[in-house]
Every structure is written in C-alpha cells, then in structure tokens.
C-alpha cells in the first residue's frame, strides 16, 4: 500500500521520506562513503553516530506510518521487510518504541522483521491477481 504524510502543506509518499533511496542519499549528503543499505548496516555495527542518527530518523517516519495503520485496521502483528530489513534492530527498535508509545489502552501489537524475501509484495500481488482471475473464471457460465 501507499501512505501519505502532510509535510509543510504538501503530501509526500512514505517512500519519499523514508525509503532506501532517501536513506542512501541522506547518508551520502552527511559524508558517509556508502553504496547501499548493507554499507549502512556495516556502519551501524561500529556504532557510527551519523549512520545511527539517519536510521533513527527514517525509523521515526516508518513508526508513524505503522502506528497509523495499527489504529486504522488493528493488526496483532506488523512485519517490516524489504531491503531495509538488513538494518535489523537499529531500524526495528525505534519503530517498536513509537508503536508502544502511541498504542491505545491495553492494545498489544508485535512489530517484527519479515523473514521472507524483498520480492514478497510482488509475489503476493501476483497470487492475489491469479486468485481473483480464477474466482472470476470459476463463476462464468460455460456454453457448449
């Protein structure tokens, strides 16, 4: 799905403020010599302050999106995946903190890193489309 945020009177896609490209761009603009998310993950392992700060900021946007989704549809578990899953606890922990801070009452929601591939969304969409097509075909009348 696509989520929007209002920032200074402009709507922005979540991906445009917290996606992989933004993470890498922000890291490079702050002087980090990186090429991909794995490089940032390596810097996190050394407790690089700049990398930690950037990931925490990105996680805060993702956390805000997650808590909004929780309040709208009420899942018991939320999975965070894709290319950023390699960031591990450095990404997931700030998201969990935001979620626990803004849950209602005794509501409990588990936030976990996905263990499936980053192609899961595309695979899920293909399965959904195939299922819908088969449902349609199974209800059509056959004339001989």
Compose a concise summary of this entry.
The protein is mainly alpha-helical and 144 residues long.
Topology of this protein?
Elements: E1 4-7, E2 10-13, H1 14-18, H2 20-29, H3 37-45, H4 49-73, E3 77-80, H5 89-102, E4 110-113, H6 120-139
Parallel strand pairs: 3-4
Antiparallel strand pairs: 1-2
Walk me through what this model shows:
This protein has 144 residues and is mainly alpha-helical. The protein has a single domain (4-138), classed as Nucleotidyltransferase, domain 5. It contains six helices and four strands; from the N terminus they run ββααααβαβα. It has helices at residues 14-18, 20-29, 37-45, 49-73, 89-102, 120-139; strands spanning 4-7, 10-13, 77-80, 110-113. The strands form two sheets. A two-stranded antiparallel sheet has the order 1-2. It has a two-stranded parallel sheet with strand order 3-4. Helix 4 crosses helix 5 (89-102). It starts with a strand and ends in a 5-residue tail after the last helix. InterPro entries: ATPase_NBD, ROK.
Descriptive labels:
single chain, 144 residues, mainly alpha, Nucleotidyltransferase, domain 5, two-stranded antiparallel sheet, two-stranded parallel ribbon, ROK family protein
Point out poorly predicted stretches.
none
Largest sheet: 2 strands, antiparallel
Strand order of the largest sheet: 1-2
How many β-strand stretches? 4
Average pLDDT taken over every residue: 88
Which value, in Å, is the CA radius of gyration?
19 Å
Give me the CATH superfamily.
ATPase, nucleotide binding domain
Measured by DSSP, the beta-strand proportion falls in 5-15%
CATH top level is: Alpha Beta
What's the quaternary structure here?
single chain
Structural class: mainly alpha
Number of distinct helices:
6
CATH architecture: 2-Layer Sandwich
Summarize the amount of helix as a percent range: 55-70%
């Amino acid at each position: 799905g696509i989520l929007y945020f209002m920032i200074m009177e402009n709507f922005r896609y979540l991906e445009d403020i917290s996606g992989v490209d933004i993470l890498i761009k922000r890291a490079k603009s702050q002087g980090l010599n990186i090429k991909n998310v794995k490089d940032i993950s390596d810097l996190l392992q050394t407790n690089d302050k700049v990398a930690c700060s950037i990931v925490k900021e990105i996680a805060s946007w993702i956390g805000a999106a997650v808590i909004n989704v929780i309040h709208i549809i009420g899942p018991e578990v939320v999975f965070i995946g894709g290319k950023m899953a390699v960031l591990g606890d450095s990404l997931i922990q700030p998201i969990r903190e935001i979620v626990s801070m803004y849950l209602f009452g005794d509501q409990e929601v588990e936030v976990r890193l996905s263990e499936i591939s980053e192609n899961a969304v595309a695979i899920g969409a293909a399965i959904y489309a195939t299922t819908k097509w088969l449902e349609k075909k199974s209800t059509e009348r056959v004339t001989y």
